[in-house]
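The records we work with from here on pair a chain with its fold. Each token is a code from a learned vocabulary of local backbone shapes. A record is reproduced here so that you can trace the correspondence yourselves:

_____
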Amino acid sequence: MTPSARPSLTAILSALPEEQHGLLEQLQGAHKQTVAGRDFWLGQLHGQPVALGLSRIGKVSATLTAAVLIGHFGASRIVFTGVAGGLAPGIKVGDVVVAHDFIQHDLDASPLFPRYEVPLYGRSRFLCDPALTALLTMAADRALATSSSAASPIWDGAQVHTGLIASGDRFVSSADESSRLQAALHGAGHTALAVEMEGAAVAQVCADYGVAFAAMRTISDRADDTAHIDFPTFVADVASQYARRIMDELMPSLPAPT
């Protein structure tokens, strides 16, 4: 069966297995397929055909995983859930950033091309799908609103933000590096809310294939000198619960499978 002949499939990507633990537990009719050395779990969530996959860490690994999901499994949309470091003022630990678009903060092909511009594309930023992003934003709003008053890992006062996310093959973990990154991006006209290591690559792959893409990131740290503190615990106990609850809100709102 060719990808175009397959039923619509929603792919949910995360970088780390801990981020998908809750989703895998909910997957109905789950079965595993291994492609390109990667394990993918297929089944249904809220009546929607779903493939769960791990991008792994970094842009190259994320590119390959996204290409397999589209080219091999025929994914018609990709949603990324994971964690990020907060960059902009007002973005605090426990908040959610839904991406409006992505930029590669470590891409510099100057003087042949302007800094941050992707060579031969004529642009530095890749937009997420507006309709899918709107649904994801509303799902995040509902998940945080309905969970904040209960005893749960959802942090009191957590907010949802939408804007630019910067990706790069480096874990930003010092206040000095964070400040320099913000200043360099701002000097080129880009104000990023958060920084992570995969989203821009997936956004570019989806743009090339014409596949809808949306992404949400739970803020695990402020991309400063405290970025390493209790990171594994935060991912397992908080970010994974955010992902599960937000996907619980998102999946029923998606168009019915065809």
Remarks:
- Helices lie at 21-26, 59-71, 130-147, 175-187, 199-209, 231-250.
- The longest strand covers residues 77-86.
- The domain at 3-253 is CATH 3.40.50.1580 (Rossmann fold).
